[in-house]
Model the fold of this input.
Amino acid sequence: MIIIAGELHVAPADRDRYLAAVAGVAEQARAAGGCLDFVQAADPLVEGRINVYERWESDAELEAFRNAGGPEIDTPAILGGDVRKYRISAVEAP
Done:
């Protein structure tokens, strides 16, 4: 299993516009083969921060989605962030 998680930063005044612009990406991802979850959401504590979380069955399915292309979207500038890929070897109940 692959998890993509982290944060993006945009100007606080642009966060809602960014999230509206990428809303369709979540719908496309969740319909894609191998996607178990996909969300970009406003952080409730930090203005301008967007939390990113994706869960995929495999690298191949993640790459297939990334390479499939999609509509051009006009988003506000991303000012920074830290998003990482994690490889999960086991899953168990908390």
About this structure: The mean pLDDT is 94. The chain is about 30% helix and 35% strand. The chain has one domain: 2-87.
